[in-house]
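As described in the Methods, two query proteins were run sequentially through the folding procedure within a single session, without resetting any intermediate state between them. The first query and its resulting structure tokens are shown here.
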Amino acid sequence: MISALAGLTRVDSGSLSVMGHDVEKGYKQARKALGIVPQEIVFDPFFSVRETLRFQAGYFGIASGAALDAWIDELLANLSLTDKADNNMRQLSGGMKRRVLVSQALIHRPPVIVLDEPTAGVDVAPRQTLWAFIRRLNHNGHTILLTTHYLEEAQQLCSRIAMMKSGSIVALDTTAHLLNAFSERVLKVIVAGDCRPVGGQI
């Protein structure tokens, strides 16, 4: 689904739109409205973190200048990357590279953000910082689609949760309702053979 939203895969049937823009017929507007953080770590090894973000902004027609530099500084601060701004991308750890990917997805201030397991490989402290930043973006009006295998992350960040199996949604509800529905634990014990009580007790 994420690949289809990004225009990397064509759907067999149906349609997808971002903020009312069809991802095929209005792909330019759809992609401007969308920021995607991929699960795979992809980076250009020839540029620093700041240069990488400036190039990414250029893809969306954002001119260099004080406004862009201020936004880049804000992104780097919120993602604990300020001290790495002038480092080459090759010098960063896997978790730092992932945070740069988050910055790239946000550089054009899209109203819809897709985060595909953004905290995989990220240490605890930067993860908490990233969570706080995601909450702030959502509070400021951004729609965020988060995929995660961490239940704690879903509980902390999501107002609604969808569970998928084999490409189909098998559950979709508010976080509170889903947790209440599946919070009961049942232990079933199947005993093979004779199971008579010993000493009158089981």
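Immediately afterward, the second query was submitted; its sequence and tokens are:
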Amino acid sequence: MVVLFAATGYMGWQASKVTISYEFAKAIPTDNPKFVEYTDFKKQFGEDGSVLVVGVQTDKFFDQQHFTQYKQLLADIKNIKAVEAIVGVPAAINLIKNDSSEKLEPRPIFTDSLLSKALLDTAKAQFENLVFYQRLLYNPSSKAYLAGITINKEILKSKARVKVVADIVAAVARYEKLTNVPTYVSGLPLIRTQVADRIEHEMRYFLLGSLGLAVITLLLFFRSFSSTAISLVVVIMGVVWSMGTLQLLGYKISLLTALIPPLIIVIGIPNCIYFLNKYHMAWQNQRTNANVTTGTEVNPAISVAKKNALLEMVSKMGIVTLFCNIAAAIGFAVFALTKSDLLREFGAVAGINIMVLFVISFIFIPAVLSFLAPPKDRHTKYLRNRFLENVLVKIETWVLHNKGKVLGFTGLLIVFSFVGILKIKSVGFIVDDLPKQDKIYTDLKWFEKNFGGVMPLEIVIDTKKKNGLTSNLKTIEKIDEFAAFIAADSSFAKPLSLVEGLKFVKQAYYDGDSTQYTAPNEFDMAFISPYLRMKGGAAENSFTKLVKTFMDSTRQKARISLSMADIGTVRLPKMLDSLKKKSAEIFDTSYNVLFTGSSITYLEGSRFIIQGLKESILWAFLLIALCMLILFRSLRILLCSIVPNLIPLVVTAGLMGWAGVPLKPSTVIVFSIALGIAIDITIRFLVNYKQELPAHNGDVTATTVSTIRHTGISIIYTSLVLVAGFIIFVFSSFGGTMALGWLTSFTLLVATFTNLVFLPVMLIALMGKRKK
């Protein structure tokens, strides 16, 4: 125990150093072609998900007082550390043609000298005449205005991003309170940061909630503070080891790994219940056999009875708990076989620590019990629970006299479930785990309505030769045609490319005539070319940088950058297919068109995770079946063990279809978790059956009834503890975690029915004629 506590102390020190992951592209492996393309894109053009957007909606935007307050908001945000640039209405520039020098001079539209309403109205008219800014910085039809805030990409990968985003949100909140103008904030930096922050907070609440429910359940179960304390110490040590393992393996807390501590609790508590339950049953038998009714532990008969009870607990429950934990560990560890870092980390840490949990339980519980006094009558009173005894008697009746009804009901349930499975849809959204009334969700929908969306999509046009963009004007025309096709779809924001910059220049050359905001032809370029060499200090630099971000240094590749709505994993592939088809019509084989960006990697990641989870469930079944075969050495018992655990998964899948719960990464994981935990009930039942069989001279029916009586109470109590542990997830603010809570709880309840009712019927049917 000293060694165990010392090791736990070391793991606690490691756990104190674990941090939250702010990387959201880990769902797919680094050698995946989509990930490689995305990485290459970022090396050439920079990050695509580093812009946070702030939107306001008011018809008084250009009133003097309000415009001054809005300028101050952007100035306050610009002063926040890690904010690199802001693009907004107050910072908008215009290009002024200087005929004498044949140069275009970039000039701010809204200067600090705009003191009168008349000057501000003039600047407003000039701004609204520039087509370049329409649907980019403002929506003329809805009076909505947007500012884009670029945050340092290194800060976005660190914990410092939390403070940066919080400071921006605070500045926006002060502005909103001051002006009473509706304000909206979105963008991947905000979504990722606030989601990660909620994960951290929810992990704490779920830990406390799971522990609290465990304490209540254990106290009601055992009516013993010592038994409750033993169980709590075991699961707390398990949680400490799980967080320490995260740090030792170099992993961080993610949406998946944040589930491990609560899972350790709901898996560890049954270990404790079964050990203590066996100890209490063995103590009662030993005390009865020794005819000891009163006395203290110093009484030799009591001391021997207690020692024998402990020995029986260890000998009977040690191997059972070992195989139960192996089966549960397999259910999670198979994720480590996938190529997804997100799943691999979750599987490795969960699998390792479930086995660590067995070691902790096996060392700690018997050792502590050896120091404590034998249980009193009130501590074992639960073994004589009249209500549960009546339930078990009814179960025996169903098993012995209503086999046909049990099989018929199960068959109807399976048919009903298969119909539901046909209704399941596989779809995922970047923010679909958030409630529809959540501000992150509602703000995102506002940007989708007014500006097309904020999810980055990047298109790279490769001319396959150096200076291919500037040597052939037809390339510019093709890019403009493709951008016009994209702009016609309301699911996209205004596409930005090199062509938009050239259109801006052409309008400026023709003295701001908005009808001239078109792609320049060869005739236009003959006159415009000299004016492309701009001057104007900081304004020149900002405009030049803007243009350069849309082509590489060799002028071989052009970039079309756009934002899109969060349309989901069903519509996105169809939309991409439409874009690819159109690009193939416009660009011949001398071009290469690449689609990438965060939206593409998210789609690929969702596909990869779902496929990985499906494969993991298959591997889990095969490996668990192998363990059962090794444990029982009987194909018939193997069949009896697998079928009762397949049925709950089928029923849960059917329920998802009937309830309209889509198949996505956060819901597919339910099946692996439920399988890993539900098989625990089966193993305990069948091991008890195997241990009881010799005592009943190989009589299968008598052994099955005895097993129901001996394991029924502990199975029911354990299932209630597990359900209580998982039901806490229902209070999550993430839809996927919420679904995980109630779906897993439902699966465990069905597993309890199949293992206490259907499994005994199968045993009698398959094993009844064989007596060994």
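Residues 188-222 form the longest helix (35 residues). We note this only descriptively and draw no conclusion about the first query from it.
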